[in-house]
């Protein structure tokens, strides 16, 4: 038992979280300057980071001046210092940590690598000794979860490996940033400044940041170099006999085995031609022998099920918010972080898309809370009444092996009173999270699919029809369900990614695939009745034949949301199969840092963001930095290097490799590449690369000459 004179100290990451802890612990005591105190406990807070790594000049004044002679910079012992504008709060926290009557410290900073690092730096500089330190690890800010976290708090030493990986991540960013930025600036900065007609240019590079820059520039150059290929598809407009009038639909010609064009060099894939005149020849052949009819060669009906998607992790949520609300990943994180701090959702900086077994057992509480939230009340009540939540632990939505620090982002069912004081965007994001969460307790959506094969003159046409039979989870997941209930009529296949088409060269230039709905309005009921009755051998009218012209299209530019997903899945870009398997599940950056890195690239004018569309394009300065890095430290542009460093940090956190092993590898890499840059003599050859990039930019603005308004 604790001595009656001693107290517990709870240290949170920010004041609002400290307040939640004080309320959960029923601390009604005196509110001091930077802390809250009662008879039994003290609650204090950081304001994010209070301590940072010292600049090189703190080691020796000679390092203040950037010089080749002082590189590589690899300190034996790293120095840390209090951040100037928060020194007052640091002194308060330091005093409390070392107070004689405080015998137990509860670490309540964010439950993740960065939160651990924030506390460890403070404890290091405050000189904490001979105190019991316990780690509170929680998944939400609800009172029950806070009290559970305190009750089950483990000894802080159990998080030493996580702490070591946090220190190493910071050292890695520091060493790569200082050495590579200085070396590249000293070597290539004057050439770049001269080209841009500026007094000086500083190059900013980093392990994750430069890799992301590389992904965007490479994609932009693929788009510039892309050569469009036209193709021509032949479409038949058919009519099936029905009462009171025939039912029209369209079908697409394909060069199947018995076709006169099968395996010929005239084809673009099996469903189009390289030249319009060949398509016209086919149409002429099919029109040659009246009457214009076709026979049903085959009909197939099958069921298609679509399961509810997995729950949200941060990257998936940021991507959906970017698409739905046109907000940046950074803005999405701010919104969901606030929802977390208001007790409304679970911990946001998570990579997991599933629940833990322990949480699944209590999930009825989350669902029950949503009965009090108007837009979701009906669905929450339905789930509770059906009891579908009881078997959730046996589904793919619960998997302890797929969770590292935290489970997926889900609503807690609490804190609904806070909605009144939140902006409309916050409620929109909250509702998206609720809909995804409740979806997993609903059955799969079921579609009926019909496919038709029609024959005329040994040439075959194909059409597909899909109708939503049972909405299942779409009832809650999809706000536009009414639209989805209609019959979807498609041709044999829609143009794959990288192709677009227009009918007779008309339609929207470069727009979506043309609408495949029949020209004459037809009821869903009539279409379904026709499909049900139609059988092999039936004769249909071929009312018209026409050409749909299409063209291959370049890869799409990244949006802020798709870039976050690309960073999360960067391992898939790695060609080396063994390395790809080794870093599976480790992207570039972490869920906590990706949005911030993207924001920095916009701020330093390496990348540009179209706020309306959220489309990302490079800026001229970014392309020049890309070319410099590509000709000096090319590995920085490769996802394999970046992702394998990230995997290494995970190994340290798991205790698989020691911090010393990692540090030695890091120092060798930094020293080797820095010395390489110093020895290089290619800076005056860079102009040819700069010229090539600059051709696409407005010389005055440094912005793309194509202009963001013209970019997709």
UniProtKB/TrEMBL annotation:
Domain of life: Bacteria
PANTHER family found in the cross-reference section: DNA TOPOISOMERASE 3-ALPHA, PROKARYOTIC DNA TOPOISOMERASE
Name this polypeptide is given: DNA topoisomerase
UniProt EC number: 5.6.2.1
Alphabetical list of Gene3D superfamilies matching this protein: 3.40.50.140, Topoisomerase I, domain 2 (1.10.460.10), Topoisomerase I, domain 3 (2.70.20.10), Topoisomerase I, domain 4 (1.10.290.10)
Record organism: [Clostridium] asparagiforme DSM 15981
Gene Ontology biological-process entries: DNA recombination; DNA repair; DNA topological change
Entry's Gene Ontology cellular component terms: cytoplasmic replication fork
């Amino acid at each position: 038992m604790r001595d009656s004179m001693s107290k517990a100290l709870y240290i949170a990451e920010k004041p609002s979280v400290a307040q939640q802890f004080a309320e959960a612990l029923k601390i009604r005591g005196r509110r001091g300057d930077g802390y809250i105190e009662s008879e039994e406990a003290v609650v204090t807070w950081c304001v994010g980071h209070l301590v940072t790594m010292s600049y090189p000049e703190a080691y020796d004044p000679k390092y203040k001046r950037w010089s080749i002679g002082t590189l590589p910079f690899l300190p034996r012992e790293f120095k840390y210092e209090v951040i100037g504008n928060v020194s007052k709060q640091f002194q308060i926290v330091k005093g409390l940590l070392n107070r004689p009557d405080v015998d137990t410290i509860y670490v309540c900073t964010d439950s993740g690598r960065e939160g651990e690092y924030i506390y460890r730096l403070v404890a290091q500089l405050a000189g904490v000794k001979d105190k019991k330190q316990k780690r509170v690890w929680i998944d939400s800010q609800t009172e029950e979860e806070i009290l559970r976290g305190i009750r089950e708090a483990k000894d802080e030493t159990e998080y030493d490996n996580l702490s070591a990986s946090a220190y190493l991540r910071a050292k890695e960013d520091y060493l790569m940033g200082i050495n590579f930025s200085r070396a590249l600036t000293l070597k290539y900065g004057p050439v770049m400044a001269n080209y841009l007609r500026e007094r000086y240019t500083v190059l900013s590079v980093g392990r994750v940041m430069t890799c992301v820059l590389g992904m965007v520039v490479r994609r932009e150059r693929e788009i510039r170099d892309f050569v469009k290929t036209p193709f021509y598809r032949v479409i038949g407009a058919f009519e099936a006999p029905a009462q009171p009038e025939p039912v029209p639909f369209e079908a697409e010609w394909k060069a199947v085995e018995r076709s006169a064009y099968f395996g010929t060099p005239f084809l673009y894939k099996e469903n189009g031609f390289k030249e319009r005149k060949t398509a016209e020849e086919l149409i002429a052949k099919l029109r040659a022998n009246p009457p214009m009819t076709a026979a049903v060669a085959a009909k197939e009906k099958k069921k298609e099920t679509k399961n509810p998607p997995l729950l949200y992790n941060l990257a998936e949520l940021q991507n959906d918010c970017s698409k739905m609300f046109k907000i940046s990943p950074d803005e999405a994180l701010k919104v969901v972080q606030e929802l977390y701090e208001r007790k409304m959702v679970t911990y946001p900086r998570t990579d997991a898309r599933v629940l833990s077994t322990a949480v699944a057992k209590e999930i009825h509480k989350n669902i029950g809370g949503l009965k009090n939230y108007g837009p979701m009340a009906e669905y929450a009540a339905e789930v509770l009444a059906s009891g579908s939540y009881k078997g959730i632990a046996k589904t793919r939505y619960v998997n302890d092996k797929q969770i590292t620090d935290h489970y997926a982002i889900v609503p807690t069912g609490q804190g609904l009173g806070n909605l009144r004081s939140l902006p409309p965007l916050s409620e929109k994001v909250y509702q998206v999270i609720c809909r995804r969460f409740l979806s997993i307790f609903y059955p799969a959506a079921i579609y009926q699919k019909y496919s038709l094969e029609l024959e005329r003159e040994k040439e075959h046409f194909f059409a597909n029809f899909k109708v939503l039979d049972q909405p299942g989870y779409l009832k809650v997941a999809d706000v536009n369900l009414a639209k989805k209930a209609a019959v979807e009529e498609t041709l044999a296949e829609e143009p794959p990614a990288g192709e677009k088409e227009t009918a007779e060269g008309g339609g929207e230039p470069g727009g979506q695939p043309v609408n495949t709905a029949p020209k004459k309005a037809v009821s869903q009921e009539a279409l379904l009745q026709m499909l049900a009755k139609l059988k092999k051998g039936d004769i249909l009218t071929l009312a018209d034949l026409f050409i749909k012209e299409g063209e291959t299209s370049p890869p799409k530019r990244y949006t802020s949301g798709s870039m976050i997903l690309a960073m999360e899945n960067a391992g898939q870009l790695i060609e080396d199969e063994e390395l790809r398997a080794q870093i599976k599940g480790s992207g570039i950056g972490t869920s906590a840092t990706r949005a911030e890195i993207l924001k920095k690239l916009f701020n330093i004018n390496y990348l540009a963001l179209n706020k309306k569309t959220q489309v990302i394009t490079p800026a001229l300065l970014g392309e020049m930095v890309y070319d410099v890095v590509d000709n000096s430290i090319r590995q920085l542009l490769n996802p394999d290097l970046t992702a394998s460093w990230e995997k290494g940090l995970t190994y340290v956190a798991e205790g698989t490799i020691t911090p010393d092993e990692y540090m030695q590898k890091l120092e060798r890499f930094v020293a080797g590449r820095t010395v390489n840059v110093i020895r290089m003599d290619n800076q005056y050859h860079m102009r040819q690369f700069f010229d090539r990039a600059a051709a696409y930019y407005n010389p005055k603005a440094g912005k793309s000459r194509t202009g963001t308004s013209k970019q997709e």
